[in-house]
Amino acid sequence: MKDFQSKTCRIALVQGSPVMFDKEKTVQKAVEQIKEAAEQGAKLIVFPESYIPCYPLRLTFGFTVGARTEEGREDWKKYYDNSVVVPGPSTECLAQAAKKYGVFVSIGITERDAVNATLYCTNLIFSPEGELVAKHRKLKPTGAERFIWGDGYEGAFPVVETPWGIMGSLICWENYMPLARAALYEKGISIYLAPNTNDNPEWQDTIKHIAIEGHCYVINVDQYITKSMYPDTLHCQEEIEKIPEEACIGGSCVIDPYGHYVTEPVWNRECIIYADLDMEKVPMSRMEFDGVGHYSRPDVIRLQINE
């Protein structure tokens, strides 16, 4: 494990609300949030899962088993039109913001493949030099997410070298995949990004376990979505009417390598959360347990990663 170039990382968690189904307005909002966080001294700024153009929570796009609707196709096409081609104007805008303010930026998008019509749930990481240094596509969309996103393969487990150690991400329920977690551990991760749309209490147990298992910082970033944020131009207004007023209530927080809260979960509002990470805690926490080092048994158990 390399020595850290910087022993403290000031981080910002953007528990944001996208301008739903509007790529350009959400990109612009993200740029403004990057500016705000950077002005507060943040060097790493982390956004939720599929922030651009939004996570289409509780929508079905007209899918039922063996059938679909024309109105659902039209709503999906609106989502498709507002998804992000990588690279493209939207990623260039985010890259320029990262460069202007000299920060790392991690942000979730719905990505549209540049060749075919498939969408992916993707996480991007930009460097302070304005370069796209990591693109991770969600390996397995969960449940009805498979209606809109394909299985990711490209960029399965990319990691980024930072002044505070190795950083990488798994999206939402990927974090329940033991071998996916192990793949990041084997790459020496110190800052584990977990962008998601999980506001249930059990999720807090999950991220604490990951922090203890990997002896790393876990950055848990969710979003805040209300029913009133859904566009009235969608065909599925009856579905939207059934959504609770607070559709996703957040719970973003930071967990240290011992499984303790650095910042307590924040609920029921849009906000930016700040924390200062003491990176010395990472190697210290691994003194008696290093799951891919002295506490591993590669002669008995070995992980094969196909990249």
UniProtKB/TrEMBL annotation:
Residues 9-279 form the CN hydrolase domain. GO terms for molecular function: hydrolase activity. PROSITE patterns: CN_HYDROLASE (PS50263). Keywords: Hydrolase. InterPro entries: C-N_Hydrolase, C-N_Hydrolase_sf, Nitrilases_CHs. It comes from the Bacteria. Belongs to the carbon-nitrogen hydrolase superfamily. Nitrilase family. This is Carbon-nitrogen hydrolase family protein. It comes from Candidatus Egerieimonas intestinavium.
